[in-house]
Amino acid sequence: MKTLKIDELSKNFGTTEVLRKINLEIDEGNFLVLLGPSGCGKSTLLNIIAGLETINEGNVYIDDYNVSKVEPKDRNIAMVFQSYALYPSMNVRENMIFGLKQAKVSKEKIEEQLQKVSKFLQVDALLERKPSQLSGGQRQRVAIGRALVREPRIFLFDEPLSNLDAKLRVEMRREIKKLHQQLKTTVVYVTHDQTEAMSLGTNIAIMNHGVIQQNDTPENIYNKPSNTFVADFIGSPSMNLIKGNLKQSSNQISFIANGSNFEIPINGYDLKEKSNLEDKEVFFGIRPEHIFFKKSNEGDFEINLRADLSEYIGHEQIMTFDYENQEVLAKFPSTIKIELSKNTKLYFDLTQISLFDAKTEERI
Amino acid sequence: MQDKTHSSYKQLEQRSKYTNMFLRWFLYFVLIVFAFYFIFPLYVMVVTSLKTMEEIRQGTLLTWPSGLNFDSWAVAWGGRGYGAGDTFLKPYFWNSIKMVVPAVFFSTFIGAMTGYVLTKWRFKGDQWVFLFLLFGCFIPFQAILLPMARTLGVLGISNSVVGLVLVHTVYGIPFTTLFFRNYYVSVPTELVKAARIDGAGFFKIFFKILLPISAPIIVVTVIWQFTQIWNDFLFGSTFSFGEAAPIQVALNNMVLSSTSVKEYNVDMASAIIAGIPTLIVYVLAGKYFIRGLTSGAVKG
Predict the structure, then answer these.
(1) Superfamily assignment of A240-357 in CATH?
(2) What residues make up the domain containing B133?
(3) B296 pLDDT band (50/70/90 cuts)?
(4) Shared-domain flag, residues B23 and B154
């Protein structure tokens, strides 16, 4: 049984296609993050799961039950919004029990739930306050509490941390993580922040233009991006994508960057398809953090590149190198001194590379 | 940079001080002049209403009355007590109250409803509905007098307070909708979504979530509608006459139809009586008025 299953789902707003043939499945207790740039359809997808938006095609199943035409309140879900959406005229207590009252739950049960959740979230001292008298973090907690008292099957979070300042955001992120560890409720969480996605999710679905680009564990998203969009979207700075061709000889496959005749051997790379490789146009992908200044692994590949630019950011520095007129970024500890406009010896960790077909932009 | 010595800075400082002082006094002067300009007619009205006819004939407009003489107020409110031809405000005042209270209530309530629907329950073509409603704000009322008279006739409520309530409600809706729509636009739609997930329906969301936070805009709308309807003369004089007339029509009849001597003191007292309710509403709710007018534009 899948806690949530989305089957061939499509959604249009007029003639604009917002979601295209979305397929998703979540197991009980998992934390799925929908990640993507603004306008990619992730919030629409969440609203559809909640039942706040209608569907054009496809179905949504919760616990194998088709809820596509079921009212939001009957879907056994709860949602936390970006603006918290606490009812301004009600105090914290009324806010938290509003849903239960609508559902005609008995007074004793409501009181019991309220006590349990408000203690758990440490808002029991705030019950008589109005939302306007709470700090950002407290509002956030009350909003989560309002969702918790309903004991939903699925928690939906719509960018719940975007309105907080940087410091509080990191704190609340940890609290949400703890919460999920303790409660083990299934979560669908929308964000455009890759750090949030990476640190919270057990699964991340990266979306762009209404299509899921990759749905995988955070490790696989980072290490084995399935196309250039994912490679580019995850990581800061993002993965270097160097354009060039493959060269195949008897027992050797190598990569040659455009305009260069220098061969980088890629025998160790796990190719999906081993035929038709000769002269194939590809992107050679390597993350800035996998380029080293000192040889650190036996397999590291030595290469000479000209340093063009240095960006100092405290704990590290980001260097821009020139590789036959293509920019290559690398991340080093800030203690290393590199002279600009000079060739520098660098080491590529070839076990961490990705290769993409230049035409389809898919991983090969 | 110019090389300025210490003393020249001193001079500049002095000069800017004098300029500021002059501007400040000029500002006060202008404000005082305007304050006089606006208060003057009211002064004349109040003073004249407290004089006897004898005093009015002998003194000037500005002369202070000899004493507090409320006779003309009593006449304006309750009449002289002799039969035919004695027009006084009391019955018409209550006509106006009977007209203005339901009309303000219904137009405000319906405006709140439409504003709620147009912002939180968007539907296909809702911008067009809003546009046509806005149109209602710009239609000159003279243009709809004949069709409205016909409508009231068909409904059998012409020359009645009920008819006037209907007219004022209908022609208030464009304005009240505009007010409420602009207010609700700034209320996050996520509130409605959250309430829907919590299981609240259309009316519950309106009454439990939105209406409790609408106090500022309700005050604005009530003041606006009350002033409009209370001060209306056109609809009142067209759709009612005699017993059913609202106070503004009665005031006009009283002032214009006196056959013998013009009793300025009674006229002035009547005019003040007719203006008092709007003043009361404004004084009671005025501080919310400005707050409510700007609350749509600036998030607080």
Answers:
(1) Nucleic acid-binding proteins (2.40.50.140)
(2) 90-295
(3) very low
(4) no
pLDDT digit string (tens) for B10-25?
Answer: 888 989 999 999 999 9
What is chain A's length?
A: 364
User: How many interchain CB pairs under 8 A, A with B?
Assistant: 55
A80, A158 contact by CB (below 8 A): yes
Can you tell me the distance from the alpha carbon of B205 to that of B211, in angstroms, rounded to the nearest whole number? Answer: 9
A83 touches chain B (CB under 8 A): yes
Across the beta sheet with A186-191, the strand order is A77-80, A154-158, A186-191, A31-35, A203-208, A211-216
For tokens 């006897």, the residue is B52
Cα–Cα distance measured from residue A2 to residue B219, given in angstroms and rounded to the nearest whole number: 52
Residue B197 has its nearest CB partner, among A77, A87, A89, at: A77
Instruction: Check CB contact under 8 Å for A73 and B209.
Output: no
DSSP letter, residue A362: B
Distances (CA, A) of A84 to A135, A147, A164, A168, A197: 12, 11, 11, 15, 19
pTM equals 0.83
Task: Count other C-beta atoms under 10 Å from residue B230's C-beta.
Answer: 23
Q: Is the pLDDT of residue B154 over 70?
A: yes
Residue A158: closest CA among chain B residues belongs to which residue?
B190
Give 3-state DSSP helix, strand, coil % of chain B, rounded to 5.
75, 0, 25
More confident: B264 or B181 = B181
Confidence of residue B56 (pLDDT cuts 50, 70, 90): confident
Give mean pLDDT, residues B219-243.
90
Going edge to edge, which strands form the sheet with A16-26? A16-26, A4-13, A57-62, A65-66
Cβ of B197 and A50 within 8 Å?
yes
ipTM for the predicted complex comes to 0.85
Q: Are residue B5 and residue B145 in the same domain, yes or no?
A: no
The answer to whether B125 faces chain A, any CB pair under 8 Å, is no
pLDDT-based confidence at residue B298 (cuts at 50, 70, 90): very low
Backbone angles phi, psi at A88, to 5 degrees: -65, -30
The reply to whether A54 touches chain B by the CB within 8 Å rule is no
DSSP output for B120-136: HS--TTHHHHHHHHHHH
CATH number for the domain that contains residue B200: 1.10.3720.10
Q: Closest-CA residue in chain A for B190?
A: A85
- pLDDT value at position B84? 56
Alpha-carbon distance of B279 to B281, in angstroms, equals 5
Q: Is residue B81 part of a domain?
A: no
Q: Is the pLDDT of residue B197 over 50?
A: yes
Residue B3: per-residue pLDDT: 58
* Residue A144 contacts B where some CB pair is shorter than 8 Å: no
CATH 2.40.50.140 domain position(s) in chain A: 240-357
- Name the residue type at position A108: E
Instruction: Let me know if residue B229 belongs to a domain.
Output: yes
| Contact of A350 with A287, CB cutoff 8 Å | no
B223 phi/psi in degrees, rounded to 5? -60, -45
Q: Are residues B224 and B156 in the same domain?
A: yes
Q: State the 10-residue block means of pLDDT for chain A, 364 residues long.
A: 92 91 94 94 94 94 93 93 91 94 93 93 92 90 92 93 88 92 94 94 95 95 95 93 89 88 87 83 94 87 92 92 93 90 92 93 92
